[in-house]
Records
---
Amino acid sequence: MNTTSPHLTLREQMFYLRQLSFLLGAGMPLTESLDTLIEQTRGKSRRALFQRIRDDTASGIPFSKSIRMHAESFDVSVPSLVEIGELSGTLAQNLLFLSEELERKQSLRKKILGALMYPFIVAVSTVVLVGTLIVFIFPKIVPIFIGMDIELPWTTRALLATSTFLISYGIYLLFLVPIVCMGCVRLYKKTRLKRYVDTLLLHLPLIGNMVRDYTLAHFCRTLHVLLTSTMTLPEALEVTAHTLHNDSYVRALSVLKEQTHAGKPLSLALKSRPDLFPHAMVNMIAVGEHTGKLPDTCAYLARLYETAVDTTTKNLSTTVEPLLMLCMGLAVGGIAISIIAPMYEITEHLQRR
């Protein structure tokens, strides 16, 4: 395996596979199709990748084997479907099928990111607004309060302490926060913390259902593609586990692989984890097994959960927006009260004089 091979994004893989499919479908030999693809490819590392694959195929190495030699550049489902396409003489059709499946996967990912973008922007805007008020606006008013012989409310004293801290150490926080965030990400990936965080994500309100539906859609879509390539069920489950991000599902699929390898039907294996695999899904899988149409059933379930994710992402902004506005209002309102309350004290102090 070539460890220097670049990782191709889903969008890039979609483009390259579709281009190859069209070229092969037009009757162009594989090596010439790869030559054309190399001419159209931008980026030295990507051109070098396809040049190596082209050289491999020209020397007699199967196309699928060459892709496996650069597996880190492609989605896990690509080598298997390319191999079955070579063996059955349907390589062009399989490449087009792959590009369409990757397009669905990319679309689902974009919907998730799009749904999370609005809350992220509002949260960042709130932090910037509050930080600006505390660091730049509030210090200009503080001398007025200090110059008067009055006792400041606790909210104002807390805001003053926060302002003093940020002015004194804010520059260090700008460097410390990214370092802490990177440390937390590394800790999440390298320790058992990932297991607990991933389990927690599945039980969070709003987020939990979206994570579960997204993972199930990805699971069913990948299983559909791999089973279509005539890969055995235990092998397909093992490969699918490597494509999932939630540790709860990864560990569950490891157990499922062993159970199906021992001859247990997939539906019965799934039934042992009702917390991860809904009853309706298990029943559909059982029907697919009994009718011999498990890949088609997985495709149907993938579309079902992709629709659920689509609905959730569309409703997420509407659901979260009032909560975000409330948090922003409380933050700005708290600062306003901390400034206005001492002014009443000052007014009463002047009236007594």
---
Amino acid sequence: MPNTTTPFTRYRMPVGFGPAPGPRQKADGTEWTADETGTMRLEFLTISFLGRAGQLERLLPPGFSLRGEPVVSVQLGFFRDLYWLAGRGYGILHPLIPVTYTGKTERIEGNFMPVIWEGLADAIVTGRDELGFPKLAADFPDFRVDLASGRVSGTASWLGFEFFSAELTGLTEVRDAQPPAADPMLTFKYVPRTSPTALAAPTSRTSRLALPLRTGASRGPARTGYPATAAGKARASSRGTGRSSSSCRRPSTSSTAWRASMSWSTAVPRTSRQRSLGT
């Protein structure tokens, strides 16, 4: 009997082995329930610097334009205790560029995410195949944290080559911090057709990822483990592109996984809408 697929069930190659488990469905093709998803944790550090408009514009797809000053934010972090990975997690790194997208019927002000590096093949495959996110692979050693001296640092590398490093120093705890307003994240989906030549037209579209700061469907408020917010100096280096320094404020607590501002350490109850848009 030949293998068949079931309507309204997500599949990824190789299809012959059945539905594809991930953040949006279980191995049997059914959706995760609230009791099964539990609570995930986020740990992120964010640095911002003033970029060069001409260089950033070369990264923008059609319909996008820079919005305001070309201040780029780079976020390095970890997802932990993920329900769909049986409590495991992975590292993530992505830049954010302030943009305005002007389409045929809508105009969106947000942050363009040109690339996402992640440290686990499962997250990369599901994000690329199901959501069209521009994901690449990288290695992420765990954060080096010294709360006594207020110092946090982390790196990202590929095959032993460290292409990103960041450090926050002089951090102090801010109690009862509230999450700031955040703009939606925008990505550009590009899927080439299968063809023996390069003449086949690709499929491309703009994807908008905008989750509410507080979903209302969660089982409780976000809980912080490390200090919620902090102020200090940030230093980032990217080999081949020089070194920049800037002053930044560590992002505040948020109850969503995908926001331009995310907390250093936050436990996040997942909702059905978040699961449908997760990585």
---
Amino acid sequence: MLRQAVASDIASIQHVRRSVRENRLVSTVISDDQVREAIEKTGRGWVIESRGEVVAFAIGNAKSGNIWALFVHPDHERRGYGRLLHDTMIDWLWSQGLARLWLTTEPGTRAQGFYEAAGWRLSGSTDRGESRYERSAMRIEVDDLSRPAIHALLNEHLRSMYSLSPPESVHALDLERLRRPEITFWSAWEGSLLLGCGALKELDPTHGEVKSMRTADAHRRKGIGRAILAHIVGVAGARHYERLSLETGSMEAFRPAQKLYESFGFVYCGPFGEHVEDPYSVFMTMRLPERER
């Protein structure tokens, strides 16, 4: 169970920190008072409990943007706890209006590989020889489809779709069709780095369709698709749509996308709009709650 850390967790947090085999911060004495300040004053902490025992924790500093700590007890590694804590903490820190996040970790450890896979970029090293990593805030912006990087990403998307489905079952849109007035297209960036894209097509004044969801191959598994989809759902609500629908592939390669949509509340349905039954397609829809409208 994931929950916010409280003062009564401090002893357990210290136990987990002392139990790890790598990146132990043995040169740094962290007192209980420092942990309390970190979770109550300068930031927030989270713990994961298993059978009533704290087995992992993370703490982020909302003032400096520092990932203050992220540790999983060795007996509970490789269960996705680290990624769950990481993503929860990162989402909260971005919600605090920070422009940049940073952390330090020991080089040559699994932690270093974990952070690099999660999208952190090496920015230097500290006086103590630790590696320093940074991330800039993701920005999602309406895109005019003029930049070469966008063209390359959409070509990557189309190649992928045509490699997975027969031509008559590919519903991905090319540049010309994405420029139609009923479609709004967004791109997601970190600095000058293109991360992904997505679009929203108005089918009628109460119904929208999610289109062109794509995360750049080099940035998968970093929460980018989820962020873009959340943005699209928010815009659909602001437009007072009552329903949001989509088409995606039916093959196993599309299962991660289906799971993402399911997590937002999309349910399976029949064809809508101009779509027809197709063994290579599945259709999903969601009613937008009143608060989204």
---
Amino acid sequence: MASKIREPLFSVSGVIRGIVTFDSLSERSVNIRTRREKTGNPNAAVLFYDGTCGFCNGMVRFILDHERSNTLRYATLHGKSGAALIKRHPYLSEIDSVIWVEPGAGRRTEQVFVRSDAALRVASYLGGFWRIGVLGCVIPRLFRDAVYDFVARHRHRLTRRPASCRVLSGQDRSRFLD
């Protein structure tokens, strides 16, 4: 009698491929999936960051150096796009965080991720080795956000502004909204 082989409900390879999902009561938690969209696509995700923070600018440079799909768009929280985002989502004005926004398409509404949820989205987006950071989704959000908030409070002391600004290629420059 042949026995059936059961598929595991959870696998490390599934997490590394970025197809693990996590759900919670929060509107900011959804499936983690890597999207491969063309540069300049208005439906591509946008990463909002503090443009006056050396740590945040370093994070953006790191993403630009390590991303594989070159689809993520960037905007500062203090620019026009950041103001428009806060107007659409007033609760964001109280949050000191990097923000990952996935625009709505069709029936899907715009999805906003803050703090550690945004960091998990970045890890998933980077792909490759960096996608292992998605394993952080098994840690309760309360603890992830506590660590995130600690780093956020001290981020200005962690790095200094670079002596010179990075010159972006035309393709990279087009992905910055303002």
